[in-house]
Structure prediction request, 200 residues.
Amino acid sequence: MLLATVLLLCPFPQSGDVVKAEVERPAIVSEDSSKDSASGKTLPAAPDAKIRTDAELAKAADSASVAPAASVEAIAPGSPAPGISPVRAAVRGDGASEHDKKTWYALIAVSSGAAVLDAWSTRRAISGGYGTEANPLLKPFSHSNAMYAAAQVSPLVMDLIGRKMMTSRHNWVRKLWWAPQMAGTNVSVSAAIHNLSIAH
Prediction:
């Protein structure tokens, strides 16, 4: 196996593949080359020079001058370019006025404040033993301070619904965008008033 590896890595030429190289001998130049060239074939002429002289350039410029045309036809103007019509905006704006936006931000503050008041009054009523939480979604949070954070979920949803309605395509929906926020605020304020009335 070692012998086969050595033979593969170091191949030796076989006798059938050997080609005898012929050594070319340099040609001997005789001293009588002038006699040989005169008696032999004539050599080709040298190629033309690629660089022209100033006189040749001036002569070429004179011969290349073009006489003006005898009659020149007038170029008729083409049809005018079509008028550019205004392009409608690809992205529609939100469609809400600045007054509506300011009112929306004010309603966010009012609805969040009403939810905090509701959470505080509920915690006060439960801790005093006057009642229990009636909302099944808020009941797990009613005995801890997590009630304040959980009470903010409903106003947040109503704020997002109001914002979506404010930018609606339908005109009647845009006119009633404030209704979800006001409804959520009214529910929170009513619940706070009820809690305070039973826990006095």
The two ends are 105 Å apart (CA to CA).
